[in-house]
Design brief:
Structural class: alpha/beta
Radius of gyration: 24 Å
Strand order of the largest sheet: 14-13-12-11-7-10-9-8-16
Bound molecules: 6-O-phosphono-beta-D-glucopyranose
Distance between the termini: 70 Å
Order of helices and strands: EHEHHEHEHEHEHEHHHHEEEEEEEHEHEH
Strand content: 15-25%
């Protein structure tokens, strides 16, 4: 008699990683799968199949994964036993056919169909081709038994499309294969501990709720500054640029979590809809406004990076000033600034609170709140205190909450671990809805189109020496 598989906890799960030998798979996905395995958080009956074009046998691929994870504990060997390899080209049906035959064979042998995660960890230019081949091969409905009902989910890395139109095309293609509930669009920032804490910080501390309004907030600054350059990612990065790489997704999601209204429940659709309301409220600037309120940079030497065009006008840095046209933070200026080759790593949200006139302290400066996402995760709130002594002199001091300090024995869950756990559990809260994608591209496209036509705002800067450069960029837009 056949076993029923309706997606329960002990049902078998197969994770197919397309782009299994790529950067992302090596740095994030396989280490995350291994840690979850070590912590026994993965389904018992899990198989991982790496799909890639290299000529690996299962064993050669296991050695590759082993070298990637670099872990000497005993559990690596048992983890590697659940790892397999399927050689295939993204644009050739042969590999897909062999993959589905293997999956079907396993299903027949065990008389149970497997739940399936298809993880597209490839450069975005391959998404469409892979989806077409998934369709032709029947990989989206691989169960061989009629009376079983396993789930199939597709995980897609960002950027989802390169503008609103290509995102819609990709969605239309996916819709021929999957329901929206099966599509998991990744923005790993949503799964970072500090970013997930934003909802707790805002809504579990009602103290802030009155101050969280346009009446009290003077400006918001969201920065994703990274010391690293693009390294060997030229093939991916040169067609994308900083705005599409981190602006359209990570930075707008941070803005959404800072500005959204409190959802009525933890229902994933409700939370995603609240985030989307923020994207829809972002001002749609005219070309003239864009010219006056945005600037871009490219680090010196970028054009010599591997796979980067010698005439590239891709930005590795951008800054722009925008605002929301509705909601609690209506008209509050929002500065988004992101770039590579910066002087420091600093991913944070800084909020400047207004200081209403005070009889006693007429010259009081603004209070600032800094919400540091990474590194040195912390929340710092300025306070004015009386400087000890005879006269009433105010002094700015900071109340700092070091996020890691009280939780030294607890583990910060890596973003990719959380994403994999949620995808397996079928929770889409930390994945981006099609509406969010659409609304965010609608805003970003205005900037990228304008920038494409006007290269005059692309300024050079020197890697690691960016203080003066950033100051001048800020002065241009603020
Ligand atoms: C990725 C971008 O999505 O996020 C990279 O493609 C960027 O360019 C990275 O460096 C930053 O992620 P994290 O988790 O290192 O902050």
């Amino acid at each position: 008699m056949l076993q029923q598989n309706t997606g329960g906890k002990n049902s078998p799960v197969t994770v197919v990683v397309f782009g299994a030998t790529g950067d992302l798979a090596q740095k994030k996905i396989f280490p995350a799968l291994f840690h979850l395995y070590q912590k026994k958080q993965l389904p018992k009956n899990l198989t991982i199949i790496g799909f890639g074009r290299r000529d690996f046998t299962d064993d050669a691929f296991r050695q590759f994964v082993d070298a990637t994870i670099k872990n000497n504990s005993g559990s690596i060997n048992s983890f590697l036993k659940i790892v397999r390899y399927q050689k295939g080209l993204f644009d050739d049906q042969t590999g897909y056919r062999e993959l589905i035959n293997n999956i079907k064979q396993i299903q027949r042998a065990s008389a149970v169909c497997t739940n399936l995660i298809l993880y597209l960890a490839t450069p975005p230019q391959f998404y469409k081709t892979i989806c077409e081949h998934i369709k032709i091969s029947g990989l989206s409905v691989p169960c061989v038994f009629n009376n079983q009902n396993p789930w199939v989910r597709i995980l897609i890395e960002k950027p989802f499309g390169r503008d609103a139109e290509t995102a819609r095309e990709l969605d239309a293609m996916l819709a021929t294969l999957f329901q929206e509930e099966q599509i998991y669009r990744i923005d790993h920032y949503l799964a970072k501990e500090t970013i997930r804490n934003l909802l707790a910080f805002r809504f579990a501390n009602p103290l802030f709720s009155t101050a969280w309004s346009a009446g009290w907030i003077q400006s918001i600054r969201i920065s994703v500054l990274e010391r690293q350059t693009i390294g060997s990612r030229g093939l991916f990065y040169d067609g994308v640029g900083a705005l599409r790489d981190i602006g359209q997704n990570h930075m707008l999601q941070m803005l959404a979590l800072i500005a959204m209204d409190q959802p009525g429940s933890w229902n994933p659709d409700e939370i995603r809809a609240k985030r989307c309301e923020v994207f829809e409220a972002i001002e749609k600037p005219t070309p003239k406004t864009i010219a006056a309120t945005s600037a871009r940079g490219q680090y010196r030497g970028y054009r010599n990076e591997l796979y980067v065009s010698a005439k590239s006008t891709t930005e590795t840095y951008f800054i722009l000033k925008t605002k929301l046209t509705a909601g609690r933070l209506k008209n509050v200026p929002v500065i988004l600034e992101g770039g590579k080759g910066m002087e420091e790593d600093c991913i944070e949200i800084a909020i400047d609170f207004k200081s209403p006139p005070s009889e006693l302290f007429p010259d009081q400066e603004n209070v600032k709140l800094v919400y540091r996402v990474q590194p040195n995760e912390h929340i710092a709130l300025d306070m004015f205190v009386k400087k000890p002594g005879d006269t009433m002199i105010l002094d700015r001091q900071q109340f700092v909450f070091d996020y890691k300090m009280p939780y030294q024995s607890a583990e910060f869950l890596a973003a990719y671990e959380k994403l994999l756990l949620d995808a397996i559990a079928g929770n889409q809260t930390l994945f981006v809805s099609t509406q969010e994608i659409n609304a965010s591209w609608n805003m970003i496209d205005l900037y990228s189109t304008r920038w494409q036509h006007d290269q005059s705002n692309l300024m050079p800067y020197t890697v690691g020496k960016t203080a003066k450069f950033r100051k001048s960029m800020r002065a241009m837009v603020e």
